[in-house]
Amino acid sequence: MQPSKTQQKPASQGPKKAISPTRDENYPEWYQAVVRAADLAENSDVRGCMVIKPWGYGIWEKIERDLDFRFKETGHKNAYFPLLIPLSFLQKEAEHVAGFAKECAVVTHRRLVAGPDGKLMPANPLEEPFIIRPTSETIIGASFAKWVQSYRDLPILINQWANVMRWEMRTRLFLRTAEFLWQEGHTCHETLEDAVSETKQMLQVYASFAEEVLAMPVIQGEKTAGERFPGAVNTYCIEAMMQDGKALQAGTSHFLGQNFSKAQGIKFLGRDGKESFVWTTSWGVSTRLIGGVIMTHADDDGMVVPPRVAPIHVVILPIVRKEEDREKVMSAVADLSKQIRAKRFFDERIDVEVDAKDTGGGDKFWGHFKKGVPLIVEVGPRDVDGGVVCVTRRDDLAGKRKSIPRAEFISGVDGILADIQKVLFDRAKKRMDSSIIQVNSEKEFNDVFTSDGEGGNAMSRGFVLAHCSDSPAAVEKLAAKKVTIRCIPIDGPAEKGKCIFTGQETSKRVILAQSY
Amino acid sequence: MQPSKTQQKPASQGPKKAISPTRDENYPEWYQAVVRAADLAENSDVRGCMVIKPWGYGIWEKIERDLDFRFKETGHKNAYFPLLIPLSFLQKEAEHVAGFAKECAVVTHRRLVAGPDGKLMPANPLEEPFIIRPTSETIIGASFAKWVQSYRDLPILINQWANVMRWEMRTRLFLRTAEFLWQEGHTCHETLEDAVSETKQMLQVYASFAEEVLAMPVIQGEKTAGERFPGAVNTYCIEAMMQDGKALQAGTSHFLGQNFSKAQGIKFLGRDGKESFVWTTSWGVSTRLIGGVIMTHADDDGMVVPPRVAPIHVVILPIVRKEEDREKVMSAVADLSKQIRAKRFFDERIDVEVDAKDTGGGDKFWGHFKKGVPLIVEVGPRDVDGGVVCVTRRDDLAGKRKSIPRAEFISGVDGILADIQKVLFDRAKKRMDSSIIQVNSEKEFNDVFTSDGEGGNAMSRGFVLAHCSDSPAAVEKLAAKKVTIRCIPIDGPAEKGKCIFTGQETSKRVILAQSY
């Protein structure tokens, strides 16, 4: 039995790649080209703000749905708090305001009027200006202060799905934008131990999610003092390695101690009859994760979407060259899509699209390949006669079409999707593990980071595991190479050593890397 | 077999009601009291903005999920566009800007600095100010202008879930708030007919959703010119009747003609080889729907949540008075909740909460009753021994507890929920149908609307079906009673008549009502 031959072979089999430049040629430009070719997002006319197009937003919806389930399973409930934050709220926590005042959108008026030239102008100034939330500790804390009276009201376990704004001057689609979508968890606890345990639990939720669902391996760690969230006692993070060896901070979980509860008066009457301040946490991930997925899995032919976050799992392309074949092919395609839709993948329906548009077959195939749909299934008249379907797996580096008996494909489609998910994770994990380099001296450090990481092609770098202090002298040396201490890995061995820059004693190796 | 008797009878069996004032005593205050007693939302420190608490937000999540499914079934995809709109965009459509300029939040600065008194002040003024979106026709249109080239790109069927701001001065939780959550559909079509057909299709989607899911009967209609969305050629709406007889506009669907496409340059090369402007639509519903659910179903004992939007369908209360009974009861409860969770209600899991908090039984029961959980199930040691559960249906006006064999309850729980859903709809439908009054003269009109509707108790009013023109003279008469033309009902008979105020000929009766 012959598979349909209407389309060209995927370009990956030849020298020409779909994405130009390739990763090797210019990594940052390759990234932008993938976002464009896969129709994930675009820049808007509002400086630094992006438009998330349906394919990109579809990935975000899958992320939301899976994470939301995990949050609820760990006892959290969703709520919604105001977009605007009074300046006086922000000012209550000194470190916090210092961290966000430089990049916030300020609302000062509540009306527009036409000026003398007919152009609209702000009118009716507000008594107290507001900022658009860059994060919601202060506004949510104001509600918590009302909600908590007694230890019986604790813990309070809240999550919010929302948009936030940080007026970044240098932006990059998904990775750093002035407005982005995220979730922010905010919790109050009776004891320090409960709050620390929540902080670590949510870090674990993020790590499992990243690895199981995004197929993106991560290192769990603790931030050093200089890299903490403004106002936090301790910040934990997951760090992923992109294909150029740079780090992406993919999620953070903060133990806030009593800093915010004292600033905002979140008090409770304890079991001992005394009034105490609660212990709080906050944790978040954002649309930046989509940038992480792109830079973990996409290749020189375009985007590769892990099946568990794919808006469409299977796209079916009917191949009709003669009008007399149309009915036979279309009816086989309708039946095939119905049967696949009836199956489940990780307890969710399998999403199928039938693309019967009358655009050229090759273009159509390539459109879906560049978008990273996990499975492309072509069905032509000879496939129908032979009882087969012609299947392309997006994770297959050679991009080979394979003719599979129809019944076998239908019964095994969930298994194929699970296998693609596994292949993607294993490939990324192997790449990360082989790019973590132990370094024991400043010279070795300089041998790894030969540039400041701002050039086009930066494929050769990786993570460095070294003893390095958080002292100004060490941080200055790191900064010269645009390297930061990404984290102190949680599962790193307790191995004493000396800072490669200052000789100071340190108790554990840290991860050093350039980052997004 | 005796049901457990730990708790008091629901107050509805006695003279004392849980909500004070009652609907009869003061309807607007009753509304606020229900929102508070059911823990749905609260006012925030940001003027006019609400905090949607977990129980209220849980209802919104169910609304989102169901509507989202309906949008996708009708071919729409979600996307996300910037929160901020440049003033120049807004200005492109003259009627549109006139409609929103009076109540918008204006962002003028992008940084805060500490002033001489240490207080934060706005800094770094923007070259062009932005407004926070009150609706997104203009910003989404800017993207559409880039996306559409040829008739092959049409239709474009997009939906956005988002927050929006309209700086209302008089606000009421859910019904009218400065910030609210909503969805806004935006579509582009090749022909006028396609766009009109989309507009009507989405009106039908809203109507079915309101009736099937919110159990809220609605009248589908067309707005008169004076009540249209700013910039629309035609606005369709669904209008629901609240228990005080006032109307709530629960959803709108706009045919925008070529007004926005011309203002924004959304052009395409047609099949005829000529360049034309697309035909657009927009349509939306918001968190206001939750206000509608409250005022349709809640009673003097608190909230009543229709099962299809209930965050929790069944709450189970273990009744343990003696420590020796604890294990037996808790194990029966765990098993019961597991079995109910395994069942489905409208293809979604049945959400079960076990409330084992050690607060007093009566308070606990009442807390859930006031929140409107559809089914409250009590399980005490004698119930376990007798193989029964003690069930309270929230739709039962007498609030009677009923002892039901455990196996029967489990196998029938989805049916009971469906029955509650039906009872709620039928009750509301009967109320609405019996409160629509045909009126044929100004005198009859004045007999119905005896006040301007601003008093506390307004239980006696309803909808008036009358011939009434959209002329300034008629509108003035209506305004004196705070009445508006709600809509021209779509399924109203084509019955010619004369305006009750002006004598002008009209072709159909319209709905007149006071409204929220």
- The number of distinct helices of chain A, counting runs of at least 4 residues, comes to 14
Strand-pairing-aware structural class of chain A: alpha+beta
Total number of distinct structural domains of chain A: 3
Q: How much is the average pLDDT of chain A?
A: 92
What is the alpha-carbon Rg of chain A in Å?
A: 26 Å
Proportion of strand residues of chain A? 25-35%
* Cα separation of the termini of chain A: 49 Å
Largest interface between protein chains, with number of residues from each side: A-B, 63 and 63 residues
Instruction: Walk across the major sheet of chain A and give the strand order.
Output: 3-7-8-14-11-10-9-24-27-23-22
Residue stretches of chain A low in confidence (pLDDT < 50, at least 5 long) are 1-15
Under CATH, the homologous superfamily of the largest domain in chain A reads Bira Bifunctional Protein, Domain 2
If classified by CATH, what would the architecture of the largest domain in chain A be?
2-Layer Sandwich
Q: How many beta-strand segments of chain A?
A: 27
CATH topology of the largest domain in chain A, by name, is BirA Bifunctional Protein, domain 2
**What is the 3D form of chain A?**
globular
Describe this structure as you would to a colleague.
The structure is a homodimer of 516-residue chains. Chain A is built from 14 helices and 27 strands. With 516 residues, chain A is an alpha+beta fold. Chain A has 3 domains: 39-105 and 133-297, Bira Bifunctional Protein, Domain 2 (BirA Bifunctional Protein, domain 2, 2-Layer Sandwich), CATH 3.30.930; 304-422, Rossmann fold (3-Layer(aba) Sandwich); 436-513, 2-Layer Sandwich (Translation Initiation Factor IF3). In chain A, the strands form 7 sheets. Chain A has an 11-stranded mixed beta sheet with strand order 3-7-8-14-11-10-9-24-27-23-22, with helices on both faces. Chain A has a 5-stranded mixed beta sheet with strand order 18-15-19-20-21, sandwiched between helices. Chain A has a 3-stranded antiparallel beta sheet with strand order 4-6-5. In chain A, β5 (106-114) and β6 form a beta hairpin. The radius of gyration of chain A is 26 Å and the shape is globular. Residues 1-15 of chain A have low confidence and may be disordered. At the A-B interface, β2, α2, β3, β4 and α3 of A face β2, α2, β3, β4 and α3 of B. β5 (106-114) of chain A pairs antiparallel with β5 (106-114) of chain B, so a sheet runs across the interface.
